[in-house]
């Protein structure tokens, strides 16, 4: 027997246990699915779709649903061309346009100016109905890209964890985009249980995970399906390493701890110096109003950022799942994520 052979294998197909896996159907989001489908439906009769803005906390199915619907749309009609861009990874106008054109199979000279790339996209939009999803849209360096895309005939699906992501945008851009808001609330424990149960069915060998352990994963995830799915995968790996026939409650707790620490560690690496200072204040106070936090930040920092930048920094912390934000603008309250 080779040292690389495993006596026990619980994961028969890892794909359903990965965050970016797109299943055949999307559950517990029927209302949002219908709303977004109505926005995209004009494409099927060769008309520009209505722009949409999807918002809600991390792990509530926004990215999954839009990717699933874009796939369905392209399969339904030859009139549609779609592209998906994660703006955290492609946060400049040039990078986003390059990624869009690449997914549309349009040759791009990477030295071309953004204005030239936009002309290529406009040319394609004149031939087909082009729909672009900009995920984590508030990570873009400038929202001018939204104005340019909406004016070029491209349909937009914008996604953010922050319901107020478009509040501070130039009125000219908001008016041009005119996106219909679609809210994604937190999943209930029962809904998360249903999601991980399906993932376990297709990703694990029969009997590898008992319902009680799946319910524990759902409860621990606090409505975040991404955390639940990753915890399930890690728990299966822990059980395999221990050469067990199934996942136990201890495996789940160990997996959940490592999942949370990994996400927090990855998120903290993305913070600039101002965001790090704000996060340290959040660690100290746990729960605090935006006005009080702003005053403490200004007092502690010799060169504080502007109030507008401060709001952007706090929105970024919320998008990364490091804090939770409740309320509107001056009445907003922040709480350190557990």
Structural class: alpha/beta
Question: What can be said about the biggest beta sheet?
Answer: 5 strands, parallel
Number of strands: 8
Question: What distance lies between the first and last C-alpha atoms, to the nearest angstrom?
Answer: 44 Å
What is the fold-level CATH name, i.e. the topology of the largest domain? Answer: Rossmann fold
Highest CATH level, the class of the largest domain:
Alpha Beta
Helix fraction by DSSP (H/I, runs of at least 4): 40-55%
Global shape: globular
**Which sequence of strands runs across the widest sheet?**
2-3-4-1-5
Percent strand equals 5-15%
Name the average pLDDT. Answer: 92
The low-pLDDT segments are: none
The CATH architecture of the largest domain comes to 3-Layer(aba) Sandwich
Reading the helices and strands in chain order gives HEHEHHEHEHEHHHHHEHHEE
Q: What is the helix tally?
A: 13
**CATH evolutionary superfamily of the largest domain:** P-loop containing nucleotide triphosphate hydrolases
Count the domains: 3
How large is the radius of gyration?
22 Å
Describe the structure.
- With 338 residues, the protein is of the alpha/beta class.
- It has three domains: 30-183, Rossmann fold (3-Layer(aba) Sandwich); 187-267, Helicase, Ruva Protein, domain 3 (Orthogonal Bundle); 270-336, Arc Repressor Mutant, subunit A, CATH 1.10.10.
- It has 13 helices and eight strands.
- The strands form two sheets. A five-stranded parallel beta sheet has the order 2-3-4-1-5, with helices on both faces. Strands 6-8-7 form a three-stranded antiparallel beta sheet.
- Strand 3 (129-135), helix 5 and strand 4 form a beta-alpha-beta unit.
- Helix 5 runs parallel beside helix 6 and helix 11 crosses helix 13 (307-319).
- The longest helix is centred in the C-terminal third of the chain and has 20 residues, at 249-268.
